From TrEMBL:
<keyword id="KW-0812">Transmembrane</keyword>
<feature type="transmembrane region" description="Helical">
    <location>
        <begin position="234"/>
        <end position="255"/>
    </location>
</feature>
<keyword id="KW-1003">Cell membrane</keyword>
<feature type="transmembrane region" description="Helical">
    <location>
        <begin position="12"/>
        <end position="31"/>
    </location>
</feature>
<feature type="transmembrane region" description="Helical">
    <location>
        <begin position="51"/>
        <end position="74"/>
    </location>
</feature>
<feature type="transmembrane region" description="Helical">
    <location>
        <begin position="95"/>
        <end position="117"/>
    </location>
</feature>
<dbReference type="GO" id="GO:0043190">
    <property type="term" value="C:ATP-binding cassette (ABC) transporter complex"/>
</dbReference>
<dbReference type="InterPro" id="IPR005495">
    <property type="entry name" value="LptG/LptF_permease"/>
</dbReference>
<dbReference type="GO" id="GO:0015920">
    <property type="term" value="P:lipopolysaccharide transport"/>
</dbReference>
<dbReference type="Pfam" id="PF03739">
    <property type="entry name" value="LptF_LptG"/>
</dbReference>
<feature type="transmembrane region" description="Helical">
    <location>
        <begin position="261"/>
        <end position="279"/>
    </location>
</feature>
<keyword id="KW-1133">Transmembrane helix</keyword>
<keyword id="KW-0472">Membrane</keyword>
<protein>
    <submittedName>
        <fullName>Permease YjgP/YjgQ family protein</fullName>
    </submittedName>
</protein>
Length: 286
């Protein structure tokens, strides 16, 4: 009964912290997301937001589990419950073992989420929805007018069905002029023109007979990123479990007030997520 109570308090606080972190990150990302979700049909927007929330909620649970354990361990110490357990011969290792044992369903669910949900899934969904949005947008552009949507400026001289004549297209780092363009399943197929690209304050001009301007991410890139995301997700999961026995003596030996606990939890959170970001950036796949 005691172990179930400790495990329930840890799970409940973990879910609350993960919800708070996901909501906070959503507010930060809203400036970027609103360029997409408010321009989509309701069904597509809801589906995308469900995927976004599912990934980041699962992503933040491991660190939330670590933080909630620190909090509950401090509460057990302050309420003398930990001292009572120790007088009956129950060590901190026993408390940790029995708590993790009862957290195993949550840990299993986290492992399944780590395998199924990837940050690249959000990028893929975003690219698909952007491609769908721009395809519908481009089909409605009148001939002879400039049209700007987000970072893309488009001009069509003439239009014959799905084929455009005398096309001008400009993005943040790309300018294309072509005699003809056709909407392709993977993007825009441009014919007989030139492309001007900008990279590191340098400009490169090239002529082409056929040029496919992709509206999404190439499949190979998606596959490599998915593998990387899966590995990072499992590192995220096991890193939090490995840190629990490391931070427990700090909570019991150094923390005397709730203010000190707030500082410790904040430092652990910053250290934790910076470490995961460094691991993500250091992983490369050929």
């Amino acid at each position: 009964m005691l172990w179930n109570w400790i495990a329930w308090r840890t799970i409940r606080l973990s879910l609350l912290v993960s919800t708070f972190l996901t909501l906070s990150f959503f507010i930060v990302q809203l400036v970027k997301l609103d360029k997409l979700i408010f321009k989509l049909p309701v069904f597509d927007a809801v589906g995308f937001m469900f995927l976004w929330w599912s990934y980041f909620f699962v992503y933040f649970i491991p660190s939330s589990l670590l933080l909630s354990w620190c909090w509950n361990l401090y509460e057990l110490k302050e309420n003398k419950k930990l001292h009572v357990m120790q007088t009956f011969g129950i060590s901190l290792g026993n408390v940790l073992f029995h708590t993790l044992l009862r957290l195993s369903p949550l840990l299993l669910a986290m492992a399944v989420g780590a395998y199924l949900l990837h940050q690249s899934d959000i990028s893929t969904a975003r690219n698909i929805l952007l491609s769908k949005y721009y395809s519908k947008l481009l089909m409605g552009i009148p001939a002879g007018d400039f049209y700007t949507a987000g970072d893309v400026t488009f001009y069509v001289g003439e239009r014959e069905g799905n084929t455009w004549k005398n096309v001008f297209l400009k993005t943040q780092d790309l300018t294309v002029v072509a005699k003809e363009a056709v909407l392709h399943s993977d993007g825009i197929l441009l014919k007989h023109g030139s492309v001007l690209t900008e990279k590191e304050n340098k400009r490169f001009l090239a002529r082409f007979d056929v040029y496919l301007l992709r509206l999404g991410t190439p499949p190979g890139t998606i596959s490599q990123t998915t593998t990387k995301d899966t590995l990072v997700n499992f590192i995220n999961l096991f890193f939090s479990i490995a840190l629990i026995p490391v931070v427990s003596p700090l909570v019991l030996g150094l923390i005397r007030t709730h203010t000190q606990l707030y500082y410790l939890v904040g430092l652990i959170s910053i250290f934790y997520h910076l470490t995961i970001l460094l691991i993500r950036s250091s992983l490369t796949f050929s």
